[in-house]
């Protein structure tokens, strides 16, 4: 499962990670995976690999590729807050590169985690067939952001103090617009409950803070995500 580089205007190349299904010759539906604030980590690569195992051609663009991680983090969050800018340009360029591949069927989905979940909300109206939002913050003007949005499956943790009420707000907004959706808040999970952070003995600290992996919630969320993608992106469910 290789790291690749995607051509950019002016001769630059954007790094990304691609995970290709190991069974069959394709083509497969594509999924753009948007990483969290930690960047293109092993955890995000594992998410892409899981999607590939379910029959999707998954690509993770590195949104911090321009160099200087702190500067890139600030610029990426600024782009998220504004709803436009270089990060969205990178996501769209990645989508176009993905669907142009001969091993991609054409339709594509998007999935994001934490910071990436916020991008997945906004990307739902930008050329994707389905979106998966995982503990992503909502934009200030949610109604406007959801104009023309694709179907959305979203997962949140009830113990996530930073996003209290977000699941209900998203569920209500999608229902009001008649957008197909599946929004669930997990009572025993907190923020980043799909992430297996490699922090050793600090795992207990994360749990007290309402952060980190929660296996039952994570497995149920993945079942819902893959079932929803199977329905709206024409790929076999896992």
Fraction of helical residues = 25-40%
- The stretches of 5 or more residues where confidence is low (pLDDT under 50) are 199-205
Give Rg in angstroms. 17 Å
Structural class: alpha/beta
Termini separation comes to: 20 Å
Give the ordered list of helices and strands: EEEHEHHEHEHEHEHH
Query: Helical region count?
Result: 8
The main sheet comes to: 8 strands, mixed
Major sheet: arrangement of strands: 1-2-4-3-5-6-7-8
How many distinct folded domains?
Answer: 1
Query: Which CATH C-level class is it?
Result: Alpha Beta
Number of strands: 8
CATH superfamily: Alpha/Beta hydrolase fold, catalytic domain
Q: Tell me the CATH architecture.
A: 3-Layer(aba) Sandwich
CATH topology: Rossmann fold
Average pLDDT value? 90
- SS strand fraction: 15-25%
The best one-word shape is globular
Secondary structure layout:
Layout: E1 3-7, E2 13-19, E3 28-34, H1 42-53, E4 57-61, H2 69-82, H3 86-100, E5 104-113, H4 115-123, E6 130-134, H5 142-145, E7 152-157, H6 166-177, E8 181-186, H7 203-208, H8 215-233
Parallel strand pairs: 3-4, 3-5, 5-6, 6-7, 7-8
Antiparallel strand pairs: 1-2, 2-4
Explain what the structure shows.
The chain is α/β, with parallel strands linked by helices. The chain has a single domain, classed as Alpha/Beta hydrolase fold, catalytic domain (Rossmann fold), CATH 3.40.50. Helix content is 38%, strand content 21%. It is built from 8 helices and 8 strands. It has helices spanning 42-53, 69-82, 86-100, 115-123, 142-145, 166-177, 203-208, 215-233, and strands at 3-7, 13-19, 28-34, 57-61, 104-113, 130-134, 152-157, 181-186. The chain has an 8-stranded mixed beta sheet, sandwiched between helices. Residues 199-205 have low confidence and may be disordered.
């Amino acid at each position: 499962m290789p790291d690749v580089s995607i051509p950019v205007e002016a001769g630059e190349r954007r790094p990304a990670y691609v995970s290709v299904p190991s069974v069959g010759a394709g083509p497969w539906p594509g999924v753009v995976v948007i990483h969290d604030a930690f960047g293109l980590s092993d955890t995000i690569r594992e998410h892409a690999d899981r999607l590939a195992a379910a029959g999707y051609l998954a690509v993770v663009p590195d949104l911090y590729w321009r160099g200087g991680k702190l500067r890139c983090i600030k610029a990426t969050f600024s782009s998220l807050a504004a709803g436009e800018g270089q990060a969205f340009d990178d996501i769209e360029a990645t989508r176009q590169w993905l669907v142009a591949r001969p091993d991609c069927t054409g339709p594509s989905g998007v999935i994001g985690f934490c910071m990436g979940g916020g991008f997945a909300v906004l990307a739902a109206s930008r050329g994707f067939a389905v979106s998966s939002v995982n503990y992503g913050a909502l934009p200030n003007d949610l109604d406007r952001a959801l104009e023309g949005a694709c179907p959305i499956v979203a997962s949140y943790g009830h113990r996530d103090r930073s996003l209290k009420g977000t699941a209900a707000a998203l569920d209500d907004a999608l229902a009001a617009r008649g957008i197909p959706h599946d929004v669930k808040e997990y009572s025993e999970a907190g923020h980043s409950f799909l992430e297996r952070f490699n922090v050793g003995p600090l795992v207990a600290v994360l749990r007290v803070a309402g952060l980190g992996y929660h296996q039952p919630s994570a497995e149920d969320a993945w079942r819902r995500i893959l079932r929803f993608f199977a329905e709206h992106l024409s790929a076999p469910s896992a």
